[in-house]
Design brief:
With 516 residues, this protein is α+β, with helices and mostly antiparallel strands. Helices cover 66% and strands 9% of the residues. Helix 3 runs parallel beside helix 5, helix 7 runs antiparallel to helix 8 and helix 10 packs parallel to helix 11.
């Protein structure tokens, strides 16, 4: 009942209110039904149902083992003290169930006081001691956990010891049946095929002890509710509700102390309800674990994307620095030397023309190097929005290359993952570079808009256009833009025609961007 979803926050107020309402409703229903059963002329209502009795005990063993194992795993994962004590309590409870079930399987009910025709006192003593031990273990575990105190004993001993003690006590009690005093409050009634335990007036001492066990279960339920308030573990909430049922089961057992093979009473019905609540707790905890794993995976994916974006940005910054300190400086030096060469009067007209063309080429290369440095150093994740990054880039593009460039933003784009924003920026950069190199345009507009979950970014120019179907496959520009769009789950549309300008549109939905 306690898996990997162990490190949780405090329970929300709404969930806590639902738990309190459920427990209050449970108390009311159990109180009314118990009073109805106890006041019925047919009480104690013993039923001869061997198959049902076996089914209840098998279910109790299986669920008890599951709860004990999952509680142990929770303790190993989180170190929460209460989990270790819960494992210990359910080991003890399951051990007694398994012991009695084993006696029934080997057909030794009569020898150990479990036969309905010749019931003994030992099973009643053993069950009473077991329930008292379980209540005490849970109270101690919850109290120490609330105080943040570690277990006082080695974990293995704390879990195994109750089972060993209870099994040894059971064997001892079964073996000394004749020496046990009769259980006050129990007598034999005839159901037509032998005797089984019924109810007669109970001694004050036994009544007080049984009520003490009832109170112990209620106290344990209250403490587990407090743990649920602190840690928000669904399993603690279900176990708290289950212990309320266990408390009422103890009252029914006190008034109807029957432990015999094949006999089903109201105590057994409440035992079954207790284990059904634990099953629901296991299911809820597993569901919580899967939800936590999904959230953790989503967070890991996001962190991986952030790390990849940071690593990419660091590498781009390094390359930008190398270009600025190396290639750009060399181009600037070459430009200065070439400028002096063009002013040399000893050159003839043809040489001066060629020198001027080289100077223009160097100047263009230097502008492209500066543009590359600026593009590499742009970090979309560091800006307040993608629109601001695009606006800054468009303005710099217009200033550097003398092409009239305008930026329009309709609404505010929803923030996208860093990788998605980076790829969109690279697509826009490639589109603007194509406008400068090939379009022969006098105006280019970059526009962003949002339509519900769709973010749309477009680059349109009034240049000479081209036929997209006629672009050779080896031309990397358009193919690179499509590949970048596919990487982040976006769609890319290219509209162009001869002498009709070009429009490149990128669309990305919020869901696709989140998964990218």
């Amino acid at each position: 009942m306690h898996g990997v979803h162990a490190l949780t926050r405090a329970a929300p107020r709404r969930t806590l209110a639902r738990l309190d309402a459920a427990i209050m409703l449970l108390v009311i229903v159990l109180s009314v039904s118990s009073l109805a059963i106890w006041s019925s002329p047919r009480f104690p209502g013993l039923e001869d149902a061997r198959a049902l009795d076996i089914a209840i005990n098998v279910a109790a063993i299986m669920i008890g083992v599951a709860v004990a194992i999952l509680a142990w795993i929770r303790w190993r994962d989180t170190g929460k003290t209460v989990a270790l004590y819960e494992s210990s309590a359910f080991v003890a409870l399951t051990a007694v169930n398994a012991l009695m079930m084993g006696i029934v399987i080997i057909g030794k009910e009569a020898e150990f006081g479990l036969a309905a025709s010749s019931p003994g006192e030992a099973p009643i003593y053993l069950w009473t001691v077991t329930r008292a031990a379980v209540a005490v273990i849970l109270i101690i575990g919850a109290t120490r956990s609330l105080r943040r105190e570690p277990p006082p004993l080695p974990p293995a001993f704390l879990v195994v010891a109750p089972a060993v003690v209870l099994i040894a006590s059971g064997v001892m009690l079964f073996g000394r049946e004749a020496s046990l005093p009769p259980v006050p409050g129990a007598e034999v009634f005839d159901l037509g095929r032998g005797g089984v335990f019924g109810v007669s007036p109970m001694s004050t001492a036994i009544a007080i002890f049984q009520v003490a066990i009832f109170v112990g279960f209620i106290v344990a339920a209250i403490l587990l509710r407090r743990l649920y308030v602190r840690h928000g573990l669904v399993s603690d909430a279900y176990l708290a509700a289950g212990l309320v049922v266990a408390a009422f089961s103890q009252l029914h057992f006190a008034l109807d102390p029957v432990v015999a093979s094949g006999i089903v009473t109201s105590t057994d019905a409440l035992r079954l309800l207790f284990y059904l609540i634990l099953v629901l707790g296991i299911q809820a905890e597993i569901g919580g674990d899967f939800s936590a794993l999904r959230r953790a995976n989503a967070e890991l994916t996001r962190l991986r994307e952030v790390d990849a974006a940071n690593a990419t940005m660091a590498e781009r910054t390094r390359l930008a620095r190398e270009i600025h300190d190396g290639l750009a400086q060399d181009l600037w030096y070459a430009k200065l030397k070439q400028g002096r060469l063009t002013q040399n009067d000893s050159l003839d007209s043809d040489a001066k023309t060629t020198a001027g063309e080289v100077l223009n080429a160097i100047d263009s290369a230097l502008a492209e190097a500066r543009q590359a440095v600026m593009a590499m150093r742009v970090d979309p994740s560091a800006a307040s929005s993608l629109e601001e990054v695009l606006r800054s880039y468009v303005e710099d593009f217009s200033d550097r290359f003398g092409v009239r460039a305008e930026f329009e933003a309709e609404g505010t784009l929803q923030r996208l993952p860093p990788r998605t924003e980076a790829e969109i920026l690279r697509i826009v950069q490639e589109a603007l570079n194509n406008v400068r190199r090939h379009a022969d345009a006098t105006l280019v507009r970059v526009r962003t808009e949002r339509n519900g979950t769709i973010s749309r970014i477009s680059v349109a120019d009034n240049g000479r256009g081209f036929d997209p179907a006629a672009v050779p496959a080896e031309r990397y520009g358009l193919r690179g833009m499509r590949e970048r769009a596919e990487l982040v789950g976006a769609s890319l549309e290219i509209r162009s025609g001869p002498q009709d300008g070009t429009r490149i549109t990128v669309e990305v939905t919020t869901d696709e961007a989140t998964r990218a």
